[in-house]
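To whoever picks this up:

The parser on our side crashed when reading a file containing two proteins. I've narrowed it down to the boundary between the first structure block and the second sequence. Both blocks are reproduced below exactly, byte for byte. First block:
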Amino acid sequence: MDLTLMVALVIALALFFDFTNGFHDTANAMATPIATGAIKPKNAVALAAVLNLVGAFMSTEVAKTISGGIIREGDGGIQITPVMIFAGLLGAVIWNLITWLLGLPSSSSHALFGGLIGAAIVGAGFGSVDYSVLLSKVILPAFIAPAIALSVAYLATRLAYSITRRHDADSGDKLPRKRGGFRYAQIFSSSLVALAHGTNDAQKTMGVITLVLISGGFQVVGTGPVFWVVAACAVAIAAGTYAGGWRIIRTMGTGLTDVKPAQGFAAETSTAAAILTSTHLGMALSTTQVASGSVIGSGLGRKGAEVRWGTARRIAGGWLLTLPAAAVMGAAAAAVASIGTVGVIIDGVLGLAIMLFIFFRSRTNRVGHDNAVSNIDTAGGAVRIKKRKSRTKSAAAARTKNADRTKIKENSK
């Protein structure tokens, strides 16, 4: 196949991946303010789209990590070819759509990395991947960033509830304090998350397009994304956010996540801080995992919180499965593409058929918890908050039980 045509095909597929990233992940930035009524769904998605567009222009450090870090540069330049990048992207897009359809918590970022790594290994061998960069810029942040976000959100929630407590700790008298202000503060904090998402996730596609331009000889090795690449990726992720976010928004009213305004503000602020810091350091982390960690941390920070370990294990399983599963898909597509032009055509036809099947399947199935669950809602489901009445009943039952024990001891004397 003609090199120029192949590069153009990869760029088109990369922008489509960026679009799917928009409707797969970005609407989650607005999950909590919508749940608390701080902002209307239509306005929230539009705001998220605009801020993703702006955020994409703010940095290119993550893009440079992908274009010149994870895939090694050999004597003749980048070792991976446009055909292999096409196969890796195809694996990432298919896994992204499958998890979206099934409501499986996953990371679009790790799907992208997995697809590219699998394709690179098949096409150029294990030595084509720089595992030190993979470890320091992708794998370690995948564990450290969500843990830090969870801890910060937990402490911030405890602090917010302590400062705005409604009863005096000593006398028990009710205090004239309200937490309604947090609802409107959430508009700012969720906007910051959307902006941060644009600075990190949009850059991953910029990095892929830059990588294919370098591998095809259209750009000098070691250079970062040019302006038209930045602009195209910014528009693609913003369009995906606005066009596809509605499927996720429709599930937010079902109440999987019992988020109060103070919680939401703490979670979103922690998420934005973690993502912006990682972007500055060039770390290509999963914004979904960071946001989910913050929501879980804020839930644990509320009084009466309990961890639903079964749900937590399901979330962790989805996170751990994504990178290797996408790598297998990318490797399989690369093996077929290695045949030549016929292989690329087979990959394209099969990939398109799978995408169309998923699209029509999503149109015929009802939108519910089983097939279209927000990743942030899923994370929130890992924490159960006891209702005030339940806590009161539990305390009363405990007092009664202690009183009965005391009577039994007195009677036995």
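<<boundary where parser fails>>
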Amino acid sequence: MTHRYRIADDVAWVSQEDLDGGDAPTAYLARVPKGMPILLEGSGCVVWLALAEGGTLEEVTAAAAAMSGTGAEDISADVADLVDQLVVIGVVREE
């Protein structure tokens, strides 16, 4: 069975592009109403933005690779690790 991932319904987030368009991609997120704020910078933010579209781990990895200009095979292990961590803390849902 192939799992699909998506941002949890109780998560509010904004990316730096929406705020000030700085150099490094940055996302600020929190579970609402009482979650601790989380900051994802650089490649972590790229994976988060890929997760915003939802999809399988392979689809998320491909989207992150396309956004960052790297090969999916080069980042697949790191993407899988980050997605697992985001599932554990409850900001990403596995379906």
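After patching the parser it read the second block fine. The mean pLDDT is 92. The helical segments are 16-19, 43-52, 57-68, 72-88.
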